[in-house]
Amino acid sequence: MATNKRPLSPFMIGPYYKPQLTSVMSITHRLTGVALSIGTVLLVYWLAAAASGPEAYEHAQHVLGSMLGQLFLFCWTWALFYHLCNGLRHLYWDSGRGFDMESVYKTGKWVQIASVVLTVVVWIIVT
């Protein structure tokens, strides 16, 4: 029996498989979904602290106002907009359009650009 040197799965990234925009965006969409879930837990913490009184709220504000808290909130904001924009892209696909490679790559790049622009605009407004 001859041994086959081909990879068993296209997900064996490295010397076997070159990541493409579509695969990276698919993985990123899943990761941003997880990040949004974690961020929602943080939002519930902040709301519970607000309902618990001034000391708990002050502590939550201190945590979220720290450099690490602000970085997390910035990344959470980007994850929200990325997931939203990519979800709209998927709705467009659900209409049966946009499956040719040119459209797939064009809309993928628009998702990336829009998520960054929307994140920056929101942070400019709130700061």
Automatic annotation (TrEMBL):
> What are the GO cellular component annotations?
membrane
Q: Which GO terms describe its molecular function?
A: electron transfer activity; metal ion binding
Entry's InterPro entries?
A: SQR/QFR_C/D, Succ_DH_cyt_bsu_CS, Succ_DH_cytb556, SuccDH_FuR_B_TM-su
For this chain's record, the cofactor binding note is:
The heme is bound between the two transmembrane subunits.
Return the PROSITE patterns for the record.
Answer: SDH_CYT_2
Indicate the transmembrane segments per the record: 31-51, 63-84, 110-126
Residues recorded as binding heme, renumbered to this chain, are H83
Protein keywords: Heme, Iron, Membrane, Metal-binding, Transmembrane, Transmembrane helix
Q: Name one Pfam family in it.
A: Sdh_cyt
Reported function: Membrane-anchoring subunit of succinate dehydrogenase (SDH).
Partners and quaternary state?
Part of an enzyme complex containing four subunits: a flavoprotein, an iron-sulfur protein, plus two membrane-anchoring proteins, SdhC and SdhD. The complex can form homotrimers.
The protein's name in its UniProt record? Succinate dehydrogenase cytochrome b556 subunit
